[in-house]
Amino acid sequence: MSQPNGGNFDIVILGAGSGGYAAALRAAELNLSVALIDKAELGGTCLHRGCIPTKALLHAAEIADQTRESEQFGVKADLVGIDMAGVNAYKDGVVSRLYKGLTGLLKQDKITIVQGEGKLVGKDTVEVDGRRYTGRNVILATGSYSRSIPGLEIDGKRVIASEHALKLDRVPSSAIVLGGGVIGVEFASVWKSFGADVTIIEALPRLVAAEDEDISKTVERAFRKRKINFKVGKPFEKVEHTENGVRATIAGGETVEAEVLLVAVGRGPSTANLGYEQQGITLDRGFVITNDRLHTGVGNIYAVGDIVPGLQLAHRGFQQGIFVAEEIAGLNPAAIDEAGIPRVTYCDPEVASMGITEAKAKEKYGADKITSYNYNLGGNGKSQILKTAGFVKLVRLNDGPVLGVHMVGARMGELVGEAQLIYNWEAFPEEVAQLVHAHPTQNEALGEAFLALAGKPLHAHS
Ligand SMILES: Cc1cc2nc3c(=O)[nH]c(=O)nc-3n(C[C@H](O)[C@H](O)[C@H](O)COP(=O)(O)OP(=O)(O)OC[C@H]3O[C@@H](n4cnc5c(N)ncnc54)[C@H](O)[C@@H]3O)c2cc1C
């Protein structure tokens, strides 16, 4: 990274993760000069400790399962074992190729890369190791960290966070996963596929509780079948170290023992001691409060990514970064609709969703104004070829557009692209039902669900 001695820029960006680097790339395209500051590697959590390495592990896990289950397809293969060194080499190879590509993209005249820890010392200035970077505009994009709960210390050995889990040089014989949200179920899924005995502890009444209730039921059924243990609706109380690992106690006194405990209770905003409050920025439980144009209300300071309350997803950060760069350039971009951001949970079975759940739709519009339809993947040829179970669920406003698309089953994440177009273009089921879906694809399940909702089901079993 270059180490210039401060200077004046159109935009100073603090943090080069998904939100920060997307803002830098779009700003440079718009001919704005940028200082992009990061204390660690360009690419942030998503590239180095989040989306990419976890999805590489999940892909290796899928191969392990397919090898184990190959006989169902008439293929004879034995799963001899998981070579974690090999899995990690594959995962790290993917990360380093993407990192190299990103570094190349950011190496351009308009972008000055600054390596070091920055602090906001004025409404237009970030200081790094005594050097001052002043911007006509400032974008805060300092991301998030793995949270814990009071009294539960993450030691990185027995009690670990996702960044430690990604670096394990062995498959734990057993693991407790504290938290049944996205990160928790993804690691539970990987470790089970790799042969570990896994127990999830979740205080809320169901796994993936942010999703539609029908999705949770299907994930729980599939996890039961996979022998992934889970205890829902029971808050965690404490953890003790044992000779070989840890013992967790949950409400009611029940205990679970395992080699490691993964704390996956969410991500907190990285905003402490960065000078934000001193400059008058409003924080709520550490999150930076902005208006819908991502402006903090102070000077020309904007915020993007995980530090802004809402979905903590990389593609939301990308979109917010692009939005703010365009806003600064005076392009007046359309505000981002949070419900229009696609969500995927990459466990097995995969979960993908758009818009709002059936429960939220009924709460918002009244139960009599909402129609929902579940298309069972049992009727979808490609899903049967893959031997996956699940469904595509649609929620519509009667005589109105689609409000929610909720999908569960193998590879459902790949269908979220069409689902997001349908939602964001406020399509009516009758309009989507006219569109042709290739046969045999899982994509057809979406098409079939719309045919059924439009009153002309084809391969739909009631
Ligand atoms: C295990 C895991 C799996 C995930 N999987 C997915 C997924 O599949 N899909 C998805 O969309 N999202 C996923 N996410 C979430 C995704 O990684 C985040 O939403 C995204 O990285 C947020 O981008 P950001 O720019 O806000 O912050 P970050 O990516 O966290 O980047 C912030 C950057 O700021 C830098 N920084 C912080 N403070 C300072 C400072 N004072 N000075 C200089 N630099 C500083 C940091 O070094 C970092 O590089 C996952 C997250 C985790 C942890």
UniProtKB/TrEMBL annotation:
Q: Does the keyword Cell inner membrane apply?
A: no
> Which residue ranges does the record assign to the FAD/NAD(P)-binding domain?
9-321
Principal location: cytoplasm
Class of this enzyme: oxidoreductase
Q: Which residues form the Pyridine nucleotide-disulphide oxidoreductase dimerisation domain?
A: 341-449
Q: Where in the cell does this protein reside?
A: Cytoplasm
Q: Which cofactor does it need?
A: FAD
**GO terms for MF:** dihydrolipoyl dehydrogenase (NADH) activity; flavin adenine dinucleotide binding
* Keywords, sorted A to Z: Cytoplasm, Disulfide bond, FAD, Flavoprotein, NAD, Nucleotide-binding, Oxidoreductase, Redox-active center
Q: Which GO terms describe its cellular component?
A: cytoplasm
The UniProt annotation places FAD binding at: K55, G118, T142, G143, S144, D306
Quote the NCBIfam families the UniProt record gives: lipoamide_DH
Please report which protein family the annotation says this sequence is part of. Answer: Belongs to the class-I pyridine nucleotide-disulfide oxidoreductase family.
Q: What is this protein called?
A: Dihydrolipoyl dehydrogenase
**Source species:** Paractinoplanes atraurantiacus
Q: What high-level taxonomic lineage is stated for the organism?
A: Bacteria, Bacillati, Actinomycetota, Actinomycetes, Micromonosporales
